[in-house]
Amino acid sequence: MTTDFEATRRAFDLPEGIVYLDGNSLGPLPRGVAERLGRAVTDEWGRMLITGWNKADWINLPRRVGGRIGKLVGAEPGSIVVGDTLSIKVYQALASALEMNPGRRVILSDTGNFPSDLYIAEGLARTVGRDVRLKLVAPEDLAEALDETVAVLLVTEVDYRTGRRHDMQAMIAKAQSLGILTVWDLAHSAGAFPVHLAACNADFAVGCTYKYLNSGPGGPAFIYVAPRHQDRAVPALSGWMGHEAPFAFDLDYRPAHGVERMRVGTPPILHLTALDAALDVWDSVDLDDLRARSLDLGDLFVERVETECPELVLATPRAPGQRGSQISFRHPEGYAIMQALIAEGVIGDFRAPDILRFGFTPLYTGLEDVRRAADVLCKVMAERLWDRPEFRKPQGRIVT
Ligand SMILES: *Cc1c(COP(=O)(O)O)cnc(C)c1O
């Protein structure tokens, strides 16, 4: 192992005394971000004003940062651009893919997908007309449901509740043999383990940056378009920043060459700067090391919890190849258990109806943290610390 995980841990500014197992939902603050952001605000925005678009090269930040993300997800250079939210990027990828397969009417996805992806697909199906519809099957039936009626397969690689992972390579091979285009949501993949978009021959992919890539709340999303599709994919959100010549101010739209056509409007420069700084830590990380350590952390947690508090039921597949970088357990009192756990300084989260989720992020989580988290969880169970009124009432926590 060549990655120094002690050093990567020091690159994060985590509060004292807690174990943070929710980086799969919101990554913590990398130390370099505040300083970089401060400079971008005072030196760039403050001093350069409008000239920052050229002098600080803000205009190319979406592509530059996209190139850095590309290295983490096995994308060809120049095939990723950053901006907007993930929901919008899902819409764009899906709309373009659908238009590239005009003879077919089905968008296929699974019931383990994140609701926003499904809502976006529903909304798109309604507005494109031509009888397009969203078909949903159970995650384990997805590969079987691929057939020649399907235009686009929309799949989130890792299930946000259970942590179950689809086999990207096999799924793409089967889809492509049937003339189906694939859109991969990498929300729980990018920065969680090595992804090989180019090697798997992916068509489109999207993902967010505020989870495993630590860009901060509301950090911009990314979109990948395979080079072979880039000049064929028609942007559904044909904004001026995706125009071939935005500053010509033409009255008619002509898409830019390459993936830049997936830009929409003015990029969020400050947040892109935060993301750019947050990505620095990855320069010293070997993704195979990251994966090995992530599996070790998860295995240790499963072993401890199953031994010491067997009333929690593992919801994540045991096989390493079938899971992402999170471990989930089920319990009917999951909500109250998670509140009690958080009160004890171990932060995971809860997903209805009964899932306790724990994200394992080797950049700043070690074996000691995992032991402590398991011990505290089992104490919460053994002493029924969750069985208190203050942990029962839904508090309207906002969790993504
Ligand atoms: C986190 C997540 C989202 C969130 O989308 P936003 O537009 O960033 O709010 C969407 N899809 C999946 C699969 C996610 O995990």
Characterise the protein shown here:
By secondary structure, the protein is an alpha/beta fold. The chain folds into two domains: 5-29 and 286-392, Aspartate Aminotransferase, domain 1, CATH 3.90.1150; 57-283, Type I PLP-dependent aspartate aminotransferase-like (Major domain) (Aspartate Aminotransferase, domain 2, 3-Layer(aba) Sandwich), CATH 3.40.640.10. It is 35% helix and 14% strand. It contains twelve helices and 15 strands. It has helices at residues 5-10, 31-48, 52-55, 61-72, 86-99, 115-128, 168-177, 269-278, 287-308, 334-343, 367-382, 389-392, and strands at residues 12-13, 19-20, 29-30, 80-82, 106-110, 133-137, 150-156, 181-185, 204-207, 222-225, 313-314, 326-330, 346-347, 349-351, 355-359. The strands form four sheets. Strands 4-10-9-8-7-5-6 form a seven-stranded mixed beta sheet, with helices on both faces. Helix 6 (115-128) links the parallel strand 5 and strand 6. Helix 5 (86-99) packs across helix 6 (115-128). The longest helix has 22 residues, at 287-308. The protein is globular, with a radius of gyration of 22 Å. The model has no long low-confidence stretch (mean pLDDT 96). The structure holds pyridoxal-5'-phosphate (PLP). Pyridoxal-5'-phosphate binds at residues 85-87, 114, 116-117, 156, 160, 185, 187-188, 208, 221, 400.
